[in-house]
Specification:
There is one protein chain. It is built from eleven helices and 19 strands. The protein is α/β, with parallel strands linked by helices. Helix 2 packs across helix 3. The longest helix has 19 residues. The protein starts with 5 loop residues before the first helix and ends with a helix. About 8% of the residues have low confidence. It holds the Pfam family DUF3557. It comes from Caenorhabditis nigoni.
Amino acid sequence: MPAVSYPVLRRILEHMEANCRFSISGRCPEISRVEKGIPLRVEEIWLTDNRVQIDDVEYEVVFEEPGMATTSSWSPPNIIMPNDPLTLRFHNYQTNRVVDKKISRNYGVETANRKVIEYLLGGRNNIRVQCLFVFYDGYETMQHLLGLSMMKVNELKSYDIGLTKCYAIIQTPLKKLRFGASHPSDFENPIVRTAEKIEISHYGYSEPDIWLETHKNLPNKEVIINAVIDGLTDIKVLNLIEYWRETRRAVGSSFSLLKANGDSIKMFLENVKDRFQGTYVELKVTNTNTFFNIDAVSIKMNSESKIVVYGGKTNHWPKMVSKVVIKMMAVGSSSEIQEKVEPLEEQPKIVPGKPLNLVFIVVPLLTFLIILCLWLFC
């Protein structure tokens, strides 16, 4: 059988499932020498303290003490002694299979974790990730890749404080960023300002007096605030609408926020109508499971665009919480409003991936490719 040419091998590896690719590279030196120079395509990467999950496989450094059960390395640091034997645990959530591999060198936990991260993702300047999740101390894990790798990320979900730390290895712009704002300066971060869509899950500070200043200049096409802001008054929201009218935001731009404590949407929209000489309009919501009892006011900008402000109750939020949306629309555009609300995310944690429908086709094909590559190169 003729040998596979490098261009063909490159194409096969580039589109191969990431964990299968790691397995082949670890068994075949010929492939290992060239594999990191080929773009790596990954659906999801999850980073936590001393753990990394790539698609459906989690890699975790654990330690075993004689006569004791295996313990995760993220247990209290004072439990881990320098001479405790370490184990690299592979957990495939799709098959629910767990494999342990002893780490022969006498590494500390931090060093072992760094070695694992560098082996999997280090030395790669073209990692393409659909969604990157960073949890808790995951930014500390990410630091091991500084100067070694670059990621092109479509969506970043951040559950920790450290947007500045991850900027060095993530190429911008992002399509979507979900994060918790720890300080007003977060809104000046290039990752935030260049993302097409940002979703603010919570605020780590309470400064309602500067809310308008930090939010009115956000250049993102879509801003979603999924947190109730204490002290945010209708006047500040009206001033935001005024700023939008003065600066003439691009058609399609939108800004949504939550109103709590039973604040009247009808009264708010009446104030919008009076201040901007708007008119009430009827909007058709295509997804009635997420938005109902909707009212809307249209504010004419010019012959080409208008600002539509609408709000109402949603099935997504608690009974006393309403949602308000400010949207720039083209004059004469459809009156349909397509609302998509994502499920509430409670305490974030890594969960098993869902089985793929094509598993019975993909697995045999990958097995064939592995055998072929091992036969040709090893």
